[in-house]
Specification:
about 20% strand, alpha/beta, about 300 residues
């Protein structure tokens, strides 16, 4: 039987990661090597094939026609290898790579994560934060927690966690009297750059006539909520991000919450993973135990 005639597997992995992720630096982070090593491996593969696979600027190269032809077949082959390895070596312990929005991580996941560690001390949850939608397959995470605002491939497993509710919150010192439901005057309506339409969405869904937001804009929800807790103004916030602050009396929500129409979901790659299954089961239980805003407004 003739022997296999394949280029270096390291070179194939480097090209596949760079082509899938679109950047040499991101591929280097995934494979835990330097960007220079990725570039050298890609050049080695190009030399072995006798054809360029990338073109364009060095900082953001694009695939050539032959590169686009090779990438999907190579990604599929590496996926099959990964699935085969996991099938015979699906260790219930070890590292679990999880990605979710940064403020979700800080305000919802981390305060509850000690419970998961108590139940599964052998699983090391490695958290990565983002403020953009990412692909559980493209970026190779075991679990991605995100909003259900983009369609997923059929092979991706989707675990619905909870519906998103939005409502105005503010420090108790700024709260209106019980008989006064008008918005407070002379206070800033704080905004968040990553969710610029939150105020308009709440006004549209409740039918209330409120002024246009004109307050300070913060980069992340965590900054906005810290400002609200300190009495710098009031803001629209998702229920799950403020439920602990409401419980502790740091914030109040005199105007209630309304459903945004979105749900938070946990996405799993199609490859079987005992660790990911256990983590998603735990996530679903934590979501079910979270108080609902209809009981609190």
């Amino acid at each position: 039987m003739p022997k296999r005639r394949l280029p270096s597997l390291n070179a194939l992995r480097a090209f596949e990661a760079a082509g899938r992720l679109g950047r040499m630096t991101t591929a280097a982070e995934e494979l835990a090597v330097t960007p220079g090593a990725i570039s050298r491996q890609v050049r080695q593969l190009e030399d072995a094939l006798g054809t360029p696979l990338f073109e364009g600027p060095k900082q953001r190269p694009v695939l050539t026609e032959l590169g686009r032809q090779l990438l999907p077949a190579l990604s599929s082959a590496l996926d099959q290898i990964e699935a085969a390895v996991r099938a015979v070596a699906d260790d219930p312990d070890g590292t679990l790579d999880v990605s979710c929005f940064s403020t979700f991580t800080m305000r919802w996941l981390i305060p509850r994560l000690h419970r998961f560690h108590a139940e599964h001390p052998g699983i090391d949850v490695r958290l990565s934060t983002t403020d953009r939608a990412i692909s559980v397959e493209r970026e190779r995470f075991d679990v991605v927690i995100t909003l259900d605002d983009s369609p997923q491939p059929e092979r991706v497993q989707v675990q619905t966690l909870f519906a998103e509710w939005l409502g105005p919150v503010l420090a108790p010192s700024l709260a209106p009297l019980p008989q006064d439901r008008a918005p407070p005057q002379g206070k800033q309506m704080l905004r968040t750059r990553t969710r610029p339409q939150a105020w308009a969405q709440w006004v549209e869904r409740t039918g209330k006539e409120w002024p246009q937001p004109n307050g300070q804009v913060f980069e992340h929800y965590d900054f906005t909520l810290q400002a609200a807790v300190r009495g710098l103004g009031w803001c629209i916030a998702p229920w799950h991000l403020v439920v602990d602050d409401l419980d502790a009396g740091r914030l109040v929500a005199p105007w209630g919450f309304c459903a945004s129409g979105h749900h938070y979901v946990a996405l799993r790659s199609p490859q079987r993973s005992i660790k990911a299954e256990r983590f998603c089961t735990w996530l679903a239980r934590q979501a079910a135990e979270m108080p609902q805003p209809c009981h609190r407004t």
